[in-house]
Amino acid sequence: MRVIVFNCGSSSLKYRLIDMPSETELAAGEAERVGPRTALPGCIHHQAWGQKEDHTLDMPDHGSAFSAVMKLLERDARLMPEAIGHRMVHGGAIFKNHVVVDETVFRHLEEVQDLAPIHNPPALRLLAACRQLYPKLPETVVFDTAFHSTIPTMARTYALPMALTKEKGFRKYGFHGTSHQYVAQEAARFLGIPMPELRAVSCHLGSGGASLCAIVNGKSVDNTMGYSPLQGLVMSTRSGDLDPSIALSLVARAQGDSQAVESMLNRKSGLLGLTGVSADIRDLVGGGGAPQSEASAQAAQVYLWRIRKYLGAYLVITERPHCIIFTDTIGEKMPHVRWAVTAGLESLGVVMDDQKNANPPALPVDLAAANSRVRILAIATNEEVAIARASFDLLANLERRPS
Amino acid sequence: MNSLVLIPGKNGVSYARISIQAPPLHGDTNARFASGLRGTSAALVDVRATLAASPWTSPIDVLTIWSMYGGPDFATPVMASRTNQDKLLRMRSQAPLSVARTAGLIAEARDAFPETPVALAFETSFFVDLPTRETTYALPGDSGMSPRRWGYHGLYHEEATCQLGQTLDTRGRPARLLSICLDRQPEIAAVLGSAPLLVTSGSTPVEGLPGECNCGEIDPAIALALAADPALGPEHANILLTQESGFAGMLGHSITLGEVLTSKRARVAKIRDHLLYRIRLAAGSSLAALEGLDGVVFSGRYAEHAASVAEHLMPHLERTLDRAPGSLPWVTCMTPLDAIVAEAGFSALLANKRPRSGSNDAWAASPS
């Protein structure tokens, strides 16, 4: 089955066509500058059978981008998708599992779109366009929050008034679930441990967002992100954890403009806020780990310290985990970050092989020293394959279900 | 030496007269005269009258005022000299309520006890040198705010870790200590030797572990959502998070930490599970900060219930550290806050009496 996976950004549309269950990539690309006209025209960077091509065109919305992508694929019958898998950031409390789209699901998706106002609405618009243009293609939605639906009550609860919690739906949802689940499955396979027995701390350290996930018996039991992606680690432009009083003081200073503060905490804080110049840890810590200025050094310390604190917390929650997993851009490619957050944790059973960490062979790789009780893995995440897997399983189950 | 300790609270000032044999400074509390709760000025006049009428006639050597916030300038207890009062007042914008309350109480104490020197003991002193990586929030420089993280049970933590440290043999290496303060707003600190490396509270005591009526750590987006609610706004959102949340909010009525830790009711057990989970997370962060652990100490007004926390927590820590069950030491520091504050007052008094070169501030603390 050929599954096309869409990952919808606010002004972009990434896609990968994957043959399942072989997980072979057949085509991939990205539509850029989707939406209102910008200084440069929209463009689709398309790749199939090793051939790259760029197509310039206006794409006023995600529906038109989708239509253009499908036209490129339709030129070759071998690339015609048989199913569509959508990534949706937030499924709210309604969607505890990934779903095959039908009328009821679509209505419920509309109900949760405000929970992730930047990501969910364009994904929903894309989904609507797909249904309109290709009504016979089965569609699935894979939620970043679904993997975290197993987080127990004691961990997902905020100590807020009961009525308020109920009325506003305040609870920890957790994010990056698709990636955490994927690398956990890969880790289980790599270590030869059945997924239902895996205990791990997964560190999804992206160049933008980042979160840690505690995994027990193959299930998420905690995630550093919370009700929104703002909570948790210091990220490229997100503040992460913050005293609630600070958030309220900032609103008061902004004459009650909560949206301005939310925008500042999501887009101008984090590493960018601390340094004033760069939102990327790679700019702050050189390849050898040497920070480039005092401000950079301090920002890097704050960033690494927060990861380390949560790593320690989750090592206790997972109790003698099989492994720590590093993934995504920073987790996979920054040896200094991996070293800094695990150094000195020998008494917790974590011992890095420093030489291997500095020059790792191809991923996946075990970077732990031989005497380390906890294995330290670097695994490349692949959210598109994870979405294709989930979509394939959902549709296969649907076929198997007696009519 | 005798000390009168004043601890301002929501509805008045609790007080205690404490006598400590001196020297040594860290003596045993050998007598405690009275304690109670009254509204400030009138209460202090009553306290003076009560002391005068008591059969115990030895004079008060120092009156020590407990203060929540001392900011970066007060790393130790100090005498309430003019210079120190000026310093304190300059911090008004950082902690308006705490500074105003302390400044007011200094004046009222001077009125009621004009012949007695006044000392100040701050909860934040222990955390003045908390590492920058721990104190820093990832906010932009132009946000108009430069808040930092503090701890707000520094007096308990300092005393408790000092007591625990004396019982451990770490062969010259600074002891790695986990200090758990079981108070209305519980707080955890990771302490290396005598230096804190991590604390759960934040820029204010609202952040961190949930308490009897404060929410503890929440997603900042929730605070913003509440502030944006037309029915609340930032001010009422603050009241909601600091006075109507925590255990009381979760349960629907007031409940003490002691009751949360001991109640058999199913609904309270859920709150206890939540609290114990949060304690476990903070303890794990502390292990990472300290690169291991030598012992755990409990303190605070509910320290008597330490066993119910230890029973849950210690096995998790021991398994994580690959230690045999029961091998990780934990102790309870039962020293009450007023005794700790009294000691702080004595230390300020003695430090002030030591000859110092170049200082002309020695007894500006004394009433004129």
Q: How would you characterize the overall build of this protein?
A:
Chain A is 38% helix and 19% strand. Chain A has 403 residues and is of the alpha/beta class. Chain A folds into 2 domains: 2-143, ATPase, nucleotide binding domain (Nucleotidyltransferase, domain 5), CATH 3.30.420; 177-383, 2-Layer Sandwich (Nucleotidyltransferase, domain 5). An 8-stranded mixed β-sheet of chain A has the order 5-4-3-2-1-6-8-7, sandwiched between helices. A 6-stranded mixed β-sheet of chain A has the order 11-10-9-12-14-13, with helices on both faces. Chain B is α/β, with parallel strands linked by helices and 368 residues long. In chain B, 40% of the residues lie in helices and 16% in strands. Chain B is built from 12 helices and 12 strands. In chain B, helix 10 (266-290) crosses helix 11. The longest helix of chain B is centred in the last third of the chain and has 25 residues, at 266-290. Chain B is globular. At the A-B interface, helix 4, helix 5, helix 7, helix 8 and helix 9 of A face helix 4, helix 6, helix 7, helix 8 and helix 10 of B.
Shape of chain B: globular
Largest sheet geometry of chain A: 8 strands, mixed
Number of folding domains of chain B? 2
Proportion of strand residues of chain B: 15-25%
CATH-defined superfamily of the largest domain in chain B: ATPase, nucleotide binding domain
Low-confidence spans of chain A: pLDDT under 50, at least 5 residues?
none
Count of DSSP E strands of chain B? 12
Give the topology.
The complex is a heterodimer of chains A (403) and B (368).
Chain A lengths: L1 E7 L3 E8 L4 E9 L10 E6 L2 E6 L5 H13 L8 E6 L10 E2 L2 H10 L7 H14 L5 E5 L9 H4 L5 H7 L8 H15 L8 E6 L4 E7 L2 E5 L20 H10 L4 H10 L2 H6 L5 H4 L9 H25 L4 E5 H6 L1 H8 L11 H5 L6 E2 L8 E4 L4 H18 L3
Helix pairs in contact in A: 1-3, 2-3, 6-15, 11-13
Chain B lengths: L1 E7 L4 E8 L8 E4 L4 E2 L1 H14 L8 E6 L10 E2 L2 H8 L6 H17 L5 E5 L9 H4 L18 H14 L8 E6 L5 E6 L2 E5 L20 H9 L4 H11 L2 H6 L5 H6 L3 H25 L4 E5 L6 H15 L9 E3 L4 H17 L15
Helix pairs in contact in B: 1-3, 6-7, 10-11
